[in-house]
Amino acid sequence: MCRWLAYSGTPVLLEELLYKPTHSLIVQSLHSRLGVETTNGDGFGIGWYGESSTPAVFKSIEPAWNDRNLQELSGHVRSGLVFAHIRASTGTPVQQTNCHPFRHGRWLWMHNGSIARFHDVKRELLLAVDPSLFPDLEGSTDSEAFFFLALTMGLEDDPPAAVERAVGLIEHVGRSNRIEHPIQMTVATTDGDPGDRHRWTWKTRFPKDFRPNPSTLWNFWTQWHAASNVLQAPLALTVRTYDPNDPRLVLRVMGGQTQTQRYYDLGPLVIARTIAWRVDIEWGDGANVEGFTRVYRDAIRVAEDIGPNCYPGDSGTYLKQGFYRGLSDLTTKIRHGHARCVTF
Questions:
Q1: Where along the chain do its domains lie?
Q2: Annotation says 310 is catalytic
């Protein structure tokens, strides 16, 4: 299988990413210490965003460790958003059009993994690609087919949901062909825009000895706090304990000029069971951007708020997870894990 690198941050020379780290992608292309293949020599590609409205790409079927042009280019090109990929083919030909990253308009796409028995399901999957996109397919890989399925299913509007729908189709087609595990994947995709929407996912477990303060809403276990750190968190998840027999998990949203507090019930507090959470956020102060907050509990949407969720003029927010409450003699604990954030 393949290996890839994605970088987003302060603009740097490509050589700082590709060549200078001790275990750089170039070193891994020849001497991999971990993974199925010890070499990735079936070509490479890099994509980066610069002055143009669309990203640049440079691809070759040469092994990355042996390409002098790549080394020369990397010492002169600087970018703040870079994709790099070294290929180990899973069966499709070694040719430039099969090298990642793939590009469509402003979008770049890289994939590590495979669509199982792609030869058997290829026709059905490609027939699902939007006819207006189909002529832009250049290669013969499962990865490019995956990319164009995601484009067909709304990648430019909602990337996480589009990838999810594309995976769902691949799994459906695979299982209809009696394939037990239709897809293996890690994916990187971007349109070069850092984005203003965020998807947070994590898991929380309230242990058997969890004891929140009674008769209060001041039992915060996740907060997105104002960067200024002088106001209450504009977004917070808490435990409401006014009814001792029915403690509830609650979302509190506030922000904008009026800082009106809005509360949404997220269901009962469940002890000794792990809960999977997802929160989609577009920050807005109610003036320039309205903002929205959506909360999913175990993949079911349990709350949606349309309205300001940050303070005017605030420079941003940061996530705080733990357990924050008023003064108490009670001792307790809470477990959080597997936290991730995607910006789109």
A1: 3-190, 197-343
A2: no
